[in-house]
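Posting for a labmate who doesn't have an account.
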Amino acid sequence: MNEYFKNVIYKLCISLVLLISLSSYNTSYALSVEDKVDILIQNQETQKNLNEKIKELDNILESKNKELDNVKDYIDNEGNEKIEVITISFVPKEEEYDESEKITSEIITLEQNKSVLEEELQDNIIEGVKLEKSIEEEVSMQLKEEGSEFIEGIWPLNDYKDISSGFGYRIHPITQVKSFHKGIDIPAPQDTDVLATDSGVVIFSGYQNGYGNVVKIKHFDGKITVYAHNNSNVVSKGDIVKQGQVISKVGTTGNSTGNHVHFEIIVNDENINPIKGIIR
């Protein structure tokens, strides 16, 4: 068997095993939110792998179709005596047709493999949506039982607990104008790990005006957390992150006077004092 097709079949088997393992976790089972988040992260990773495999097959299919067109053109040109003698190879015509049939067969197999992967991807997408909805429903029930608006998170930095600028009105250190500070500033050395205070979905990761490099996470209880002035971001928009996962590195990008993380919590579209939303 062609080595390429061996690899395709092997990867396909691995993907099917992952799908079966994911499907076995019916979201109606009594799994903890943490367990479901783990499965959701695995599901997202599987989706990424499947997308990469589909893209790889698309590239191979494009190449094979071009190869088939060239063979067909050669056969047609030879039959119509439109090809120059200097370009004619002394290959029996039967072999030319065999080559065309071989490439056509390979294309059919590739398209079938792609179809299987696309179906598997769709199944994973549906499973991911169900999982995310299940997590949100469970968190919502927990909040109702506790009479809370949101779930407290962890401190966004290990070992660094000092606050250099608190929540509320202050004299801006750069503009020297009194303005409202929407979060808290926690100083730490450059490239210190910045942690997700709670599990959720990254809704923004990039550069934004005075915030510099910033990560924004929407959590399963509905709140949004903001981590700004990062030296670098290590997550991307759409990523599922767990509480305590490294999402960025401390820096001083944007309007900043030194290395620190500017941290905000937004509940129902309003900034609250972050001290009330995380355990110090």
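Reply:
Got it, the structure tokens are right above this. The domain at 153-279 is CATH 2.70.70.10 (Glucose Permease (Domain IIA)).
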